[in-house]
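PROTEIN DATA CARD
Card holder: PLD1 Phospholipase
Chain length: 267
Origin: Platysteira castanea
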Amino acid sequence: HTVRRQSIKRGEPRQMPSLPHTAESTVREEHFSSRRKQLEDYLTNILKMPMYRNYHGTMEFIGVSQLSFIHDLGPKGIEGFIMKRSGGHRIPGLNCCGQGRMCYRWSKRWLVVKDSFLMYMKPDSGAISFVLLVDKEFNIKIGQKETETKYGLQIDNLSRSLILKCNSYRHAQWWRQGIDEFIRKHGKDFLTEHRFGSYAAVQENTLAKCLVSWVVEYKDELLYLQATSAVPFIYLYFLRLSPEIFMKRPVVEGNRWRLDCILKRKA
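Structure generated from the sequence above:
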């Protein structure tokens, strides 16, 4: 970033407004609106310049990431840096050895809140480290008594108890309130159990139903193809699913019901 900034021609004109120089406490009430407009113009012009818009410090200040405005991922909740404690998985083999505090590790991650899941990413590469789905056991606790961590925040679901460490009790409350209000508003369908024990509500007129109708309509042709084929095969459709998603939850049999393991077993 420093090299790119220095490479800009010095004589190149820039339409950058100046920031207010007077202290906040000395500004008269009648000047508040003009001061607010100055700050708004400054930030707007910063975001129009790709070099500053993509700078990690700018993104952190505004609270956005590479995944903030991808429509297919659902509405945007709060985002920000957190300290995440290792362990807490209810999937056998993913926890670190032992249960003592000396075994835990703390890692800095960027936490993203969406309508049906939470995920955290590595700040240096942007790689997604873990996705925590919203389900009927989704719950948030704060306080040292519940989390065994000063200014701790605990987020539970059927597969994990995620422990986060905040800078203060107020910071922990801000995260808890922001996550809870957003999930209750946009992800309430995932918080209760539905027909046949499903974690998701019944959806009308979906692509999956169209595919099922197509299979029913052409079932005779499909059965003929399968009967005349020398090697049995499975009909796969392009679904927006991670190959590592667990099709049966909670996870109680290791990786047996993970999607990729099911397909491998059937093949």
